[in-house]
Amino acid sequence: MVGGQWVQHPGGEVEYEVHITNPFDPVTEGIPDFKMRSEQYYMHVDPSNVVLATTTFSGEHIPWIKDCIMPVTWKRVYGKGRVFYNHARPRCADFSVPECLEMTKRGLLWASK
After folding, report:
1. CA-angle at 88, arms to 2 and 110, nearest 5°
2. How far is CA 105 from CA 25, 26, 34, 86, 89, in A?
3. Contacts 24+ apart (CB under 8 A), 62-67
């Protein structure tokens, strides 16, 4: 239903870049790429997700995932419902990044319609 399953977060809390891949979607429109210091999740994801943002693993902590591009924000329809996923953890530090906070607010509004 959610569109993804967490596998692990190599290196724990690390700095990484979030790349907006769908700049014309209402959830991401006008939001530039940005940096996060949080857990960079390695996940299994549903290919039918509408991916809005990705991150690329450096391979520093697990060499075989070097240059792996992982979706970090997506939306999808499930039955008659809407699902929004964002990589941010529910803690203040993640939402102190303005781009992350704005994307989360917009995504929740989209899902609530």
Report:
1. 55
2. 14, 11, 16, 10, 14
3. 62/10, 65/10
Mind listing the pLDDT tens digit for each residue in 15-25? 999 999 999 99
- pTM comes to 0.92
Report whether 83 contacts 10 (CB < 8 A): no
Report the alpha-carbon angle 47-53-105, nearest 5.
Answer: 110
Give backbone dihedrals phi and psi of 50, rounded to 5 degrees, phi first.
-90, 100
CB atoms within 10 A of CB 93: 13
Interatomic CA distance for residues 68 and 94, integer angstroms:
22
